[in-house]
């Protein structure tokens, strides 16, 4: 999803002063991109809503530190990504997902009944870490270096996760035979 | 025949493919199709519709902000009271020009308290202000907070301030408070409130 949202400097200045209406205006401006990013990475709407709330509380607490370098969305997105990744680690979603992912892939390969699956569903069946890497790299435009930094991992880890995730997506879609 | 791995395809997409992978791609239709499918997958991911939250979380965020502000005000209030108490103890000790300083300090503190009441009457958190005024108010509040911190530290036994220093700090606080009240009163008058 491409974000071309520009926020007036005056609104940021008012938000920095603690003006609640300005803070709400910022919330409204970035509510959807933050929620969408969190939902794609975390999959569960309730988790994404929690990340949305945590992200904006952090925005309110830290906005005085935003010096206007770079787009405000980039700054807010970094907070949102951090919150989402923290949730993946905290909930240990990754391990549970990977088991589920393998199980689903195995079942589909032997069922012989090709339930239709699209890319969105296939993407949701990836592990939390895989979803985060694919979404950040391929959709949000993060570099492997940036992903590695935010995840506290190496560049090689980010690259291998991306390759692994695409191989799984390809397999999931190929098994169902609906990839276009 | 050996084909490109997903790592190879991703590297090719990023313009970082190995010499072998590039040469292989030129002559391999299968790998060409795989690379195209990779491009298509990413394009489809980018084109997924944006999802919106089912519930409005702003009220929860707003309530949390208000609660944090109330806690912070309480903390600074307690610090100010502590600082005032320490100041009173120091000033009323019998020392050199203590009597003069005590009178000055009492007067400045009364002025500060009056300004605090004026500021509360204007209710600065309840209304919208221009970006310029907001930035000015924020800067003044930051400076007042710094002085409150210094006043609170003045109560520490290891380095008690001289009475004239204390008077100077309180005077600075009053000056800043006057400016802050001025910003809010001007704005309230401008919007007719």
Strand-residue proportion of chain B: under 5%
Number of DSSP helical runs of chain A: 9
Query: How many strand elements of chain B?
Result: 0
How far from one another are the termini of chain B? 81 Å
Sequence of secondary-structure elements of chain A: HHHHHHHHH
Structural class of chain B: mainly alpha
Oligomer: heterodimer
Average pLDDT figure of chain B: 79
Strand runs of chain A, count: 0
Low-confidence segments of chain A = 106-116
Give the count of helical stretches of chain B: 7
Largest beta-sheet details of chain A = none
- Coarse structural class of chain A: mainly alpha
Describe the structure.
The complex is a heterodimer of chains A (180) and B (193). Chain A is mainly α and 180 residues long. Chain A is built from 9 helices and no strands. In chain A, helix 2 (20-42) packs antiparallel against helix 3, helix 2 (20-42) packs across helix 7 (128-139) and helix 3 (45-62) crosses helix 4 (72-91). The model of chain A is unreliable at 106-116 (pLDDT under 50). By secondary structure, chain B is mostly helical. Helix content of chain B is 75%, strand content 0%. Chain B is built from 7 helices and no strands. Chain B has helices at residues 6-13, 19-27, 29-46, 58-91, 98-122, 131-153, 163-190. In chain B, helix 1 packs across helix 3, helix 4 runs antiparallel to helix 5 (98-122) and helix 5 runs parallel beside helix 7 (163-190). The model of chain B is unreliable at 189-193 (pLDDT under 50). Chains A and B meet through helix 1, helix 2, helix 3, helix 6 and helix 7 of A and helix 1, helix 3, helix 4 and helix 6 of B.
Put the structure in a nutshell.
The complex is a heterodimer of chains A (180) and B (193). With 180 residues, chain A is an all-alpha fold. Chain A has helices spanning 9-16, 20-42, 45-62, 72-91, 93-111, 119-124, 128-139, 144-151, 155-176.
Features:
heterodimer; A: about 180 residues; mainly alpha; elongated; B: elongated
């Amino acid at each position: 999803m491409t974000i071309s949202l520009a926020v007036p400097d005056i609104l940021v200045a008012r938000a920095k002063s603690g003006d609640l209406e300005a803070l709400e205006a910022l919330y409204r401006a970035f509510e959807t991109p933050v929620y969408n990013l969190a939902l794609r990475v975390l999959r569960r709407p309730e988790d994404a809503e929690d990340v949305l709330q945590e992200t904006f509380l952090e925005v309110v607490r830290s906005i005085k530190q935003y010096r206007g370098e770079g787009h405000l969305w980039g700054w807010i997105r970094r907070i949102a990504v951090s919150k989402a990744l923290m949730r993946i680690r905290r909930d240990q979603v990754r391990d549970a997902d990977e088991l589920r992912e393998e199980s689903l892939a195995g079942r589909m390969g032997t069922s012989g009944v090709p339930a239709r699956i699209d890319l969105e569903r296939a993407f949701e069946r990836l592990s939390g870490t895989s979803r985060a890497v694919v979404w950040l790299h391929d959709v949000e435009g993060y570099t492997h270096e940036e992903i590695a930094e935010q995840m506290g991992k190496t560049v090689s880890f980010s690259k291998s996760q991306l390759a692994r995730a695409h191989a799984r997506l390809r397999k999931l879609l190929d098994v169902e035979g609906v990839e276009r | 025949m050996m084909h490109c791995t997903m790592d190879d395809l991703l590297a090719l997409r990023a313009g970082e493919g190995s010499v072998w992978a590039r040469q292989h791609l030129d002559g391999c239709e299968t790998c060409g199709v795989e690379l195209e499918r990779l491009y298509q997958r990413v394009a489809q991911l980018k084109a997924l519709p944006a999802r919106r939250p089912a519930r409005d979380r702003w009220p929860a965020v707003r309530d949390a902000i208000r609660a944090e502000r109330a806690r912070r005000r309480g903390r600074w209030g307690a610090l100010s009271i502590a600082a005032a108490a320490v100041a009173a103890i120091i000033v009323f000790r019998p020392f050199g020009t203590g009597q003069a300083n005590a009178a000055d300090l009492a007067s400045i503190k009364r002025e500060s308290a009056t300004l605090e009441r004026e500021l509360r009457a204007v209710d600065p958190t309840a209304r919208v202000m221009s970006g310029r005024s907001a930035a000015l108010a924020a800067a003044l509040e930051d400076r007042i907070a710094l002085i409150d911190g210094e006043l609170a530290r003045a109560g520490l036994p290891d380095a008690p301030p001289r009475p004239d220093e204390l008077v100077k700090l309180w005077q600075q606080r009053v000056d800043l408070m006057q400016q802050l009240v001025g910003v809010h009163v001007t704005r309230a008058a401008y919007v007719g409130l």
